[in-house]
Amino acid sequence: MGRRPLWPPINLQKEVWEHRVPDFPQDSIMLHSLFRLCGTVLVSAVMVAAYLSPAAAHSYCGAPRSGPQVYLFGEPGDFALLTRTVRITMRDMRFSPDHVAVKQGESIRFIVTNLDDADHDFTLGDEMTQQEHRKEMAEMTDIAAAHANHSDAHAIFVPAGKTRVLIWTFSVPGSFEFDCNMPGHYEAGMRGDVSVR
Length: 197
Ligand SMILES: [Cu+2]
Description:
Elements: H1 10-13, H2 26-52, E1 75-76, E2 84-91, E3 94-96, E4 99-102, E5 107-114, E6 120-125, H3 127-139, H4 143-148, E7 155-158, E8 163-169, E9 174-179, E10 191-196
Parallel strand pairs: 2-5, 4-10
Antiparallel strand pairs: 1-8, 2-3, 5-8, 6-7, 6-9, 9-10
The structure holds copper (II) ion.
Copper (II) ion is lined by residues 120-121, 180, 182, 185, 190.
């Protein structure tokens, strides 16, 4: 058996049909709600700290990181807390659908299928995050190799003809984007938006 590639992380590599949305017994749901409440309080505290700290800048795609990454548009999703699955296809430089409406607190499993001959990228984030990611990808000489050496919880590289999964918890209300940041693709119209209310 060959070595497992570093990208995507193993939870993203699982075949789509292995995933099941679990049915929770009622007491388990209450327990999860309690955990999520604690989590929300913790995340809020961390976000305040992130705003106050000049060192808490985002870094992507191979750039060195210090400490855990903090996101201002939600948090990496927990499979156990999934509330919904959204299937997105990439075809002819477009996402379909290109708009997703989410209720604050939902954990969404995005199943993203690339039907094009070209590789694509599915990056969730606010406008600033997207701009930074685009800039970094524009500077890369070998994007596939760069993606093999890191993982970002909010972004997945979807090779031509493949399907990848990303789970995200939308704990922060607002208008966000899902874009393809392969050079030239966003500019060609490969963008979508997520509204979290
Ligand atoms: Cu693309």
